[in-house]
Amino acid sequence: MKIQSSVLVHLGFGKYVRSDQVTALVPIEEERGPGRRTLVHLEGQSNPIIASRAEDTIVRDLVQEPREVTQARQQQEILQDLLADLGNVNSTVRRISRDEGSLDLDLLERRIRQVIEN
Q1: In angstroms, what CA-CA distances link 56 with 6, 102, 107, 118?
Q2: How far apart are CA 53 and CA 28, in angstroms?
Q3: Which of 31, 40, 79, 89 could in theory staple to 49 by disulfide, Cβ–Cβ 3.0 to 4.6 A?
Q4: How far apart are CA 96 and CA 42, in angstroms?
Q5: What's the N-to-C CA distance of the chain in angstroms?
Q6: CB 9: neighbour CB atoms within 10 A?
Q7: pLDDT tens per residue across span 12-60
Q8: Residue ranges of domains in the chain
Q9: Cβ neighbours of residue 65 under 8 Å, at least 6 residues apart?
């Protein structure tokens, strides 16, 4: 997990903090309720901010990856799933899809392997 610097994290009710300034999250045990879920301690401040969001959702936002990285990982996973499924296609179906459907599954499989390996 890596904290993304200079990313604003939503604490609820219009409160935002920079992710790299958060030093601790403490769930509120007593008098917890709407608008009072988590104490957010910030670097350089002696008093915590009261957040209306639960600590686990704030943590998730603190360590979330940039959207581009997440999308690239999802694309890789889709290609790996497709490659695994292609490995289960027998030679007869491959021949029919190539000869009658103009879909060369062997070529597709090789190209996916090249993309995954790079």
Answers
A1: 20, 50, 45, 35
A2: 11
A3: 40
A4: 63
A5: 24
A6: 25
A7: 888 999 988 999 999 999 988 888 999 999 999 999 999 999 998 898 8
A8: 8-62, 67-117
A9: 4, 73
